[in-house]
Predict the structure.
Amino acid sequence: MTATLPIEAAPRAQRTDRIPVAVLGATGSVGQRFIQLLEGHPWFRLTDVVASERSAGKTYADAADWRLDTLLPREASALVVKPLGAELTARLVFSGLDSSVAGEAEDDYANRGCVVVSNSKNHRMDADVPLLIPELNAEHLGAIERQQKRRGSKGCIVTNPNCSTIGLAMAIAPIERLYGITQLHVTTMQAISGAGYPGVPSIAILDNVIPYIGGGEEEKIESEPRKILGGWDGSRFTDATFRISAQVNRVGVIDGHLMSISLKLRDDKVLDLDRLRREFETFAGEPQKLGLPSAPKQPLHFLAEIDRPQPRLDRDRERGMSVSVGRLRPCPLLDLRMVALVHNTIRGAAGAAILNAELMEAKGLL
Ligand code: NAP
């Protein structure tokens, strides 16, 4: 089912009535990215910042230990941090909350009529909650109507996937469409910003690789792409049928998750690598058609150089919103192998959620 478009996405310059937005978990790693990316946003205006009791009552400038390499935006610095559960000015609520509190808090705001666009894992696999990548499964927004009925409210939750899952799902989408995938193995090399701040101690990660990431990271990467690349039949989600095996590693990189992927194709189809490269380069979806403000011109970039993508060189491509793919070649065990890179706190988290909200606004769902 494809949702219809009641309004056209207006170009940047035409919006004078910016939509008030709140950020839950505003002081954290993902929260700070939200604040950075919302500065001067053409459609959204930051009105509320929410964090724990440790931060509540302080100005954002005092509460947040600002760690990004741009200056703390002036519009955020003087806002007073609210505690979780507080009344908000905004109805559109972005969440970068710690998963220990996100589940209940996001439900609470959605039941009170807010549109919650979340990064947290808690509601991703719920039967009526879209796990959205706008280029891949915009039609999954159809589930919102069912969710609103369940809640008895105009509020809802829409989620974005795990930071590695987003890169993986985007990188394999053209292959799934062209050939069909039956099995996939992925080994991730994940940046330390994915663990929040202060995250992994420097003495543990410098000169080291840690072959474990807590919080069910491997299970998320093994299950979420099947929901994303599956369908919405008007009443329920149907999973894609391929199976995934994931092994995750934390590496001493600040931002950017790199993944080595091998996959088996359906029906022993004959591989045409040149055609596949063109599919990556021309891949596009609703955000590109609608010209959404945060949409990359090209969601996937194919890099022909033998030693790319690399986190430091490629993570900021298209303001961190596109996924880079390279090293595409046959696999002697399965059929095909390649490397993919995603900026974990931009396309893998805050940027993804902002794009989700832009899509919802363009479809008249806010
Ligand atoms: P983080 O740096 O630890 O930030 C957590 C945020 O949650 C802080 O703002 C913190 O506020 C708030 N918080 C913690 N306990 C709270 C409580 N009891 N009540 C209210 N607020 C509370 O974590 P993060 O890395 O930003 O991750 C945030 C969420 O996004 C997690 O669910 C994570 O799994 C998900 N995620 C992260 C990434 C990534 O790359 N980092 C990517 C995708 C998804 P205080 O500062 O006041 O403690």
Q: What stands out?
A: The radius of gyration is 20 Å.
